[in-house]
Amino acid sequence: MNQVTEVDHPLVQHKLTLLRDKSRTTKGFRQLMRELATLMCYEVTRDLSLDPVTIETPLMSMQAQMLSGKKLVLAPILRAGIGLLEGMLDLVPSARVAHIGLYREPESLETVEYYFKAPVDLPNRTVIAIDPMLATGNTAVAALDRLKEHGATDLRFVCLLATRPGIANVQEHHPGVRIWTASIDAELSDHGYILPGLGDAGDRLYGTR
C-alpha cells in the first residue's frame, strides 16, 4: 500500500459523499465527477518536475518555474473514465489524451478491449490512466498493459473508489505504478461492484439506467 495515496482533503471527501448519494441527478453526478477530477488532478501532479525560465512581468524580468518535459497524457478508460477527463483538462488543458475502450464481461469479470488510440510518443510523457472505479482491478491491469505495450514507462493511475483486492491486483501486475484514490471501500459484491460504492458510474453519468 506504500504506492497508494488516499486523498483525504475535506473538499474531496465532501464531494465524494454527495456523489455517492443515490438521489443525485444525472446532471449533479456529472458536475461532481468533474469537480472531483480537478481536485484529484492537483494531487496526482503534485510532484511534476519544474525548470527555471526567465520571463518579463509588466515591471521587470524574473526567474520563474514552468513544467519541464513534454505535456502529460491523460488516458481515460471508456466509458466512465470520460467523466473524469474534462475536470482534469480544466487544470491541464494542453494535455494529450489517449482513449482506452474496455468493458468487463458480466459473467467472468474479465476485460474485453474494443478500442485503443494514443499519442505515438508515450515513452516521452507522463501518462495518467483514469477510471472512477478500481474494483477487481482487471480493467485497470488491462489498460496499463496496453499503455506499456505502446511504450509508456512513467505511469500513474487515478480513481475515485478502490478496493484492497483491486489495488493488490494492480500492484501484482504493475508494481511501479502509483495509485491515487479518494476512498478505499470495504468490499466487492459477487458481481464485482464496490460496496458501499456509488453504483455503476457510467450509468449514473449518462442516465442509461
Quick overview:
By secondary structure, the chain is an alpha/beta fold. The chain has helices spanning 10-20, 26-44, 82-91, 138-149, 164-173, 201-206, and strands spanning 4-6, 50-56, 61-67, 73-78, 96-97, 99-104, 111-117, 126-130, 133-134, 154-158, 161-163, 178-181, 183-185, 187-188, 194-195. The strands form 4 sheets. Strands 1, 4, 5, 6, 7, 8, 10 and 12 form an 8-stranded mixed sheet that branches. The protein has a 3-stranded parallel sheet with strand order 9-11-13.
Summing up helix and strand content along with how strands pair, one would put the structural category as alpha/beta
Biggest sheet overview: 8 strands, mixed
Give the mean pLDDT: 93
CATH class descriptor: Alpha Beta
Outline: globular
**SSE pattern:** EHHEEEHEEEEEHEEHEEEEH
The N- and C-terminal alpha carbons lie at a distance of: 34 Å
Helix count equals: 6
Low-confidence stretches: none
The radius of gyration is: 18 Å
Based on the coordinates given, report the CATH architecture.
3-Layer(aba) Sandwich
Q: How many E-type strands?
A: 15
Name the helicity range.
Answer: 25-40%
Number of domains: 1
CATH topology assignment? Rossmann fold
Proportion of residues in β-strands: 25-35%
Detailed description of the structure:
The chain has six helices and 15 strands. By secondary structure, the protein is α/β, with parallel strands linked by helices. It has one domain: Rossmann fold, CATH 3.40.50.2020. Strands 1, 4, 5, 6, 7, 8, 10 and 12 form an eight-stranded mixed sheet that branches. It has a three-stranded parallel sheet with strand order 9-11-13. Strands 2-3 form a two-stranded antiparallel ribbon. A hairpin with a 6-residue loop joins strand 6 (99-104) and strand 7. Helix 2 packs across helix 3. The protein is globular, with a radius of gyration of 18 Å. The relative contact order is 0.17. The model has no long low-confidence stretch (mean pLDDT 93).
